[in-house]
Amino acid sequence: MISSRVHIVRIIFWIFLQIIILNNIFLFDIATPYLYILPIILLPLNINRQLFFLISFIIGISIDFFEGTGGIFAASTLVIAYLRPFFLRISFGLAYEQMTIKFHEESFLQKLSYASLMVLTHHTTLYTLEAFSLNNLIMILEKTLYSGIFNVILIMLIFNLLAKNK
Fold first, then answer.
1. pLDDT tens digits, one per residue of 60-83
2. Which structural domains are found in the chain, ordered by start?
3. N or C: which end of the chain has fewer CB within 10 A?
4. What is the reported pTM?
5. Element counts in the chain: helices (H) and strands (E)
């Protein structure tokens, strides 16, 4: 069992990595790596729900503060925090119901399904709030698709690196 301090250090690491380095990377001027959502994806399943929402909000509002975006990251992280149990149930089924998920032991397709659901939901929320209008639907879909694919690939690479360390 990983201690709370380790989780806090990881969260702070991903927030600062996002702010200092990742927010300055633009793949083809349309895809940005948003890896700050990794702690939300990987926090323990048995975490208190209210604490999980608070952590998700703090992660999102931290990015908002440094980016001057007025709450769109906080809203996006809260949406995926709220939907996380549903996405876990869809991706891992009975293992989630019994709280026996060992992420590094689950199949590639289960992890891909979970990461894709979380990332695409986050990105759809983020880019819709950023555009603040469905008049830009094509732009929202393009950014969601391209950034989503880019982020899912990066997250799956990180999952594989973490699994090799176990």
1. 999 999 999 999 999 999 999 999
2. 4-165 (1.10.1760)
3. N
4. 0.90
5. 7, 0
